[in-house]
Amino acid sequence: MDTKDYIMKGADELFCQYGFRSVTMDDIARHLGVSKKTIYQHYTDKNDLVNSLLRDRIVSQDFQMKKRLLESDNAVQELYFAMEDLDFLLATMNPMLFFDLQKYHPKAWRSFMVFKEKEIGKKVRENLQRGIAEGLYRSDLNVDIISRMRIDHMDIIFAENRNYNTFNYTLIEIMIEITRHFLFGICNNEGQKLIHKYDKEILKITNKDNN
Fold first, then answer.
1. pTM summary value
2. Which sign, positive or negative, has the C-alpha torsion 24, 88, 77, 189?
3. Radius of gyration of the chain (CA)
4. Phi, psi (deg, nearest 5) at residue 137
5. Helix (H, G, I), strand (E, B), or coil: what is residue 139?
6. Which of 162, 38, 45 is nearest to 104 (CA)?
7. What are the phi and psi torsion angles at 74 (to 5°)?
8. pLDDT greater at residue 179 or residue 201
């Protein structure tokens, strides 16, 4: 790992734990055991570091979505795979991270919003069309409206999570519950059979499986 990637990895760890606002360049330097001068040789300032980090996350997430599409047996499983990926992403993430991003790093936030609207929005539409073609989603779905609603779920979780009691529930628990509600709304009888099948795996993530 080169120095630039080492700095980004260490900064990512701190940001996920404490949020963007609370972490300073001094904190990052101490965490990594390097001088601030070393960090500034690779990143102009904290905004530059955050922007670079988000670009890297976006590229990784785009790759993972394409990979999961190929790995999944059907549209329902594709969404469960997405929940598993979110568990990995959100496991150590401070709930205020996206609020901090929106308020203090507008350029990075705009990049995230563009990715959400274009790339994630495209994948949502493709998943809906796939599920209909596979005979798992209701054939009467209005793909435009339902895909918009699904994208809005991300705002509920990431931009407005303070509306939820994150002391009692983790972000992944909230997202799983919302996603299951979404799936039961779009699936027909055949699709709902798969929800019950994949629930057995996803519930293990939140330690709710009593079996």
1. 0.82
2. negative
3. 19
4. -105, 155
5. coil
6. 45
7. -160, 175
8. 179
